[in-house]
Amino acid sequence: MVKRFILLATLALFGVFVFAQDVIMLKTGDDIEALIEKVGAEEIEYKKWDNQAGPVYVIKKSDVFMIKYRNGAKDVFDTPAKPVQTQVEQPKQTPSTSITPSTPLTPLTSSSNLQAEFYNIGNDDKAMLEFFRRNQMAYYNQFNQACKMKKTANALLGTGLGITAAGVIFHIAGKKAVNDAEKSSSLNDVVSNVQKANVLLDTGSTLMVMGGLSTIGSIPVYAVSASKKKAIKNDFAREYFGVINYTYQPKLNLGTTANGIGLTLNF
Question: Does residue 176 lie in a domain region?
Fold first, then answer.
């Protein structure tokens, strides 16, 4: 009974931790995990989800595209306006690869630099979102969804590693209880320590399994996200530049990451 209660409580806590928050989706493509306090006529008041005891933040509604509430409801505040179509000189292409765009492109960047800007962005998702937002909202919406999948993969990975670490701690505590039982001279102490050890070891094993599943589950989500982003870039390059396949060289970078300092392979 004790083991079943701990397992159910852990699953409930896991569900609340991952899913029970409001999400403020900005027009820039960024998301804010929040606890909505008030939605006014011109401003939105909220607290950061990971610091609910902290200060109340205020953001203008004009900067917000949509709010997704934790109960599944949504509030859409504005629909991005379509850019005004103007006559823009398209980059010259050779007859063998030139493709006429099916949708007029109205970039704020000069047409002579548009293709260079696109390829120089590389794998910078934030810069690519801004590029699509300025030039083609249809691609922006698709790319933004793929980026959200990447955020989901990162959340699954972080949660999985955290739960696994908690499981290891429980497992270590269980091993200690086993050692205490072996050293005890009193029968009551032996029984008590053995029972305690069993609960800790079972809980630790359950948490490690859950953490492992969450970590493994992040892999296909990340792979699908990367595949979608590449396909969107391919489609844009094919439609507007006549390029059959969008590619750029992988880069190995040394720098800071969410988990500290390390090497990252960008491809």
Answer: yes
Structure tokens at 256: 């800071």
Give pLDDT tens digits for 192-221.
888 888 999 999 899 999 999 999 999 999
Record the tokens describing residue 52, joined without a space: 């609910």
Residue 263 neighbours by CB distance under 10 Å: 9
CA-CA distance, 133 to 79, in Å (whole number)?
Answer: 13
Total of domains in the chain:
2
Phi, psi for residue 22 in degrees, rounded to 5 = -85, 150
Same domain, 155 and 260: yes
DSSP 141-157: HHHHHHHHHHHHHHHHH
Secondary structure class of 244 (helix, strand, coil): coil
Q: Residue 239 has which token pair?
A: 């439609």
The tokens describing 6, both together, are: 């701990």
Judge if 133 and 59 occupy the same domain: no
Task: Give me 252's structure tokens.
Answer: 């190995």
Could you tell me if 235 and 132 are in contact, meaning their C-beta atoms sit under 8 angstroms apart? Answer: no
Specify whether 66 is located in the same domain as 138: no
In a domain, 2, yes or no: no
By CB atoms closer than 10 A (0-12, 13-18, 19+), residue 61 is middle
Its domain, for residue 230, covers 110-267
Residue 84 CA to residue 107 CA, distance in Å, equals 10
Q: Are residues 69 and 115 in the same domain?
A: no
Whether residue 254 sits in one domain with residue 125 = yes
Span 125-165, pLDDT tens digits: 989 999 989 888 888 999 999 999 999 999 999 999 999 99
